[in-house]
Structure formats: C-alpha cells, structure tokens
Amino acid sequence: MKKECAIVQDLLVLYEDDCLQEESRKMVEDHIAECQECRWVYEASEKMQDIQVQTQTESDLQIQKSASQIMKKIKRRTTLKAVIGIVLIVAVIIGGHVFCNHITDSEWGYSEMLYGIASDDVEVAQLYQLAGGDIYCVLKSSKSIGIQSMTGLQDPAELSNQNEDQTLEYRMRGRTFWETVSALEIKQSTIIFPVRLEGISEETKQEYTCYAKQVVFYGKTMSDKKVIWNEGQDIAKAPDEIEYRAIRAYLENGNVEKAYAECESLGWDSAKIIAEIGKQTSQDGIYEDAGVPILVNEK
Asked: How are the residues of the chain apportioned to helix, strand and coil, as percentages rounded to the nearest 5?
C-alpha cells in the first residue's frame, strides 16, 4: 500500500464524520477520485454505515413496537381491573340493599338498617278507640323521627293470601344528617289506624269488607316489633277533644265522608262541627283510600 493511500484511508473516518479541514478534505476527495483501491474502501465503508443505520432503525422500530404492545396490554389490564372493580362495587351495593330489604321487609334498605328506629325506642303514649271504630294512637320516640311508613287495609283480592283479616304495619326512620339541618326535631307521632274497609273489588267486581286484626310497629328488622293494638283489645273510648282532632284530621286528608260518619256516631251536629273546623283549617287534602292510616297534624 502506498504511503499516501494509508494516510487517506486513515482519514476516511474523519472525512465521513465531516471533521476535516477544507484542505485535508479536498486532498481526500482528489485521491479517492484517482485511486480505485481507496475508492473501494470508501464505498465499502459507506455501505457498512448504511447497514448499521438501517439495522439500528429496524431495532428501534422493533423496540417501539414491543413497547407499544406492552402499553396496550397494560391499558387493557388496567381497564379490565377498573371495570371489574366497578362491577363488584355496584354488585355489593345492590346486593346489600336487596339483603337489607329482605330482612327488614322494607323499601328503605340500607337506610332502614342505619337509621331505622328500634321498637325499644318507641312507646305507646295514648291509645283510644274512636266512636266510628278507628284506632287513635300517639307514639313517642326517644330518637328524632324522620320518615314514617305505614300499610293500610287493602282489597283482599289484591293480596296473595286474599285474607280479609289484615295486619297494619308502621315504621319510623330516624332523621339523617341532611334532615337534621333542614327539618324540625319531632319525637312524637299521632296516627289514626282504620279497622274496617268496605268497597268494590277492581279484581272481582264484587263487594268486599276487610278488617284490621292487629297494628304492629316494626323496628330495624321484621323480628324487631311491638304490637300496638290487637282486635278485641279493651281500650279506652276517645274523649271529645281526641274525637274533635280525629274529625279535623279526616277533613285535612279530604275524607269528608268519614268525618260526617264520625260526627253521626257521636251524635254531634255534623254540619255545624265540620263548618266550624272548616274555618280553622284547609280542606284541600286528597284522600282517595279510606283504608290508609292518617298522620294527625300535631299543631
């Protein structure tokens, strides 16, 4: 190898990296143009460099592809875990609500278990039988009362057992946190429970008569209960003041017919009494079902 060729070939690396001064660069280019051997070395070096670049590019692309696939798998797994987690949470909430409904036999679910007032926290303060037969009851609670729930007498044909003798159920739920802010504290409830209902069945188109055989207060569960009244129980007849309040409650709930019947049972002048009460209170209430218990206004 000529000495000049050895120098040029040593300079090829710097030439390819564009690190030579102009004079040295021109010398390398002139020599490559004239020397076939050095030109072959230069072209071979360029091809090797292209191969390395291509290999590096393909490797980078493969790495990127692999990384992309890994990220997609991670995202899929994360999404799947999130979906499973949400489904489990919803299932627990719904399952718990159904379970609570089952053991309390109430639509309140969790609310019943958390805020339901136990039977031991409730006492029967007053219990009277009205002249028309209905039961006038005052219940006192050691805890603040939020929502109240009651069942009434129903057409026997609509019941699974078609029983004419029925049990009236009553529940109280304690005040929740948001109710303590917006509602007044109430620890007493007055209810009039119907003991007899007559009507024409929508199912059979026949006349029916059903009776209340029992009034029961239920606490947090179906086993937590207190009997308020039993059919045939000997209780005091309502004094005139209570009768007056009951007639007023009938009118406030739109049950004018029952208000008249109560006055007649007492031998009172129904027109006079109802007119007198009408001046004191609104009669805009809508009360279509005489079998539903009435909450008496405490005012």
From this structure: 50, 20, 30
Q: In what order do the strands lie in the sheet with 122-129?
A: 236-237, 122-129, 135-141, 188-193, 294-295
145 Cβ contact partners less than 8 Å away, ≥ 6 residues apart: 117, 172, 173, 174, 175, 186, 187, 188, 189
> CB-based burial of residue 287 (10 Å sphere; 0-12 exposed, 13-18 middle, 19+ buried)?
middle
Backbone CA torsion sign across 184, 190, 195, 199: negative
Q: What is the pLDDT of residues 273-283, one digit of tens each?
A: 888 887 766 54
Give which of 145, 130, 114 is closest to 217, Cα–Cα. 145
Secondary structure (3-state) at 34: helix
Higher per-residue confidence, 164 vs 120: 120
Contacts of 153 (CB under 8 A, 6+ apart): 166, 168, 194, 196, 197, 210, 211, 212, 291, 292
Single-letter code of the amino acid located at 257? E
Whole-structure pTM value: 0.61
* Neighbour tally for 246: CB within 10 Å: 24
Per domain, the residue ranges of the chain are 3-66, 112-295
C-alpha closest to that of 219 among 186, 174, 172: 172
